[in-house]
Amino acid sequence: MEVELVAALTGLAGLAIGLATGLAVRVSERAQRVQAPAPPQHALPPGVASVLSVLRSSAVVVDGEDRVLRSSSAARAFGMVSGDRLVVDELVAMARLVRRDGEIRETEIQVGPSRGRRADGRWFQVRVAPLGSHGLVLVLAEDLTDMRRVEAIRRDFVANVSHELKTPVGALSLLAETVEGAADDPEAVRRFSGRMQNEAVRLTNLVQDLMTLSRIQGDEPLPELHPVALDELIVEAIDRSQTKASAKDIEITAGGQHGLKVRADDELLVNAIRNLIDNAVAYSPENTRVVVATRRCEDQHVEITVTDQGIGIPESELERIFERFYRVDPARSRQTGGTGLGLAIVKHVTTKHGGEVTVWSKEGSGSTFTIRLPLLDPVRPPVPAAVRENRDNGREAKP
């Protein structure tokens, strides 16, 4: 009996131990599952974020699944990144190739709404390289837009200068041969000699305008600025344009406020005003009027306006008329003998003096060009008597 009781108790004890062991194993497995760490997320290597923050180039770091881990504000502003994705297909393809073979790649891309046109979007020099392990890739993009624009302007400028110089030089050569062949005809010699003089003047004006433009288009400030009276500058500019105006019976008048002064290089500013007057005369019909006026603005600036009764400028051309060698009507410009640099000189001279130049024009109704400059030693408005009395009383009350 006792043996059977001991056996039963022993079996129950073994069963309890087995149940406890199984329960402990199950609890341990569940705890291990709960505490098991999640798969490690890719992160930037130490110090990389600090380096990227000081780079001048637009920077983007993508992980093994092409997700953007970090991007500069410039990269987002230029439209390379949206959310956590690269949105430029060329960059995505380069990142995948670099991730696959580990080789650094470089290229130039255009980011913009219309990649078929050079004028749209922005150009970038792109360098894509692996960054550490875990499939991270670094994309660096340097903005080349301004450099490309300068190169294009330089190429166009050289081409335009060559063309403009070739025209009078070729004409002089041809006229010289003609004069030589007409040596026995004094009337022909006089006629062709006059044309040679006109071409020589045109060539001289072009060279002079090029020298003026090269002087003022750089970033260096003008060295000699001193107080000048606008009345004197306008009289001088009108005098220099009077011959061309008289040939077309065009009257040039001056008006507006007198006694205004600015700080300027008087020769450059006279040149700018003269260019506007010459332009107005060239594109105005005979027996019309050109008006040069000055007025003081309330914000301590002065405006010089040149208004004509000419043919006007199409609205679509207004944004380009200050470009070098740009002509609304090239055939008419050749007839007037202009160099195509006058308005460009006006723009640069005005900018050098801390001002701006604007234009209003309507086809068939004429044009108005306005040079706006800071006023020198602006006269303060008179203080009202009541304010002046209170101010004086306040001074007397002080010990």
Word description of this protein:
By secondary structure, this protein is of the alpha+beta class. The protein has 3 domains: 89 residues, Beta-Lactamase; 69 residues, Orthogonal Bundle (Helix Hairpins); 149 residues, Histidine kinase-like ATPase, C-terminal domain (Heat Shock Protein 90), CATH 3.30.565.10. It has 11 helices and 14 strands. The strands form 4 sheets. The chain has a 5-stranded antiparallel β-sheet with strand order 2-1-7-6-5, sandwiched between helices. A 5-stranded mixed β-sheet has the order 9-11-12-14-13, covered by helices on one side. Helix 6 runs parallel beside helix 10. The longest helix has 37 residues. The radius of gyration is 39 Å and the shape is elongated.
Sheet-strand content, in percent, reads 15-25%
| Strand segment count | 14
CATH superfamily of the largest domain: Histidine kinase-like ATPase, C-terminal domain
Number of domains: 3
User: What overall form do the CA principal axes indicate?
Assistant: elongated
Biggest sheet strand order reads 2-1-7-6-5
Q: Could you tell me the CATH topology label of the largest domain.
A: Heat Shock Protein 90
Number of helices: 11
N to C succession of SSEs: HHEEHEEHEEEHHEHEEHEEHHEEH
Oligomer: single chain
At CATH level 2, the architecture of the largest domain is: 2-Layer Sandwich
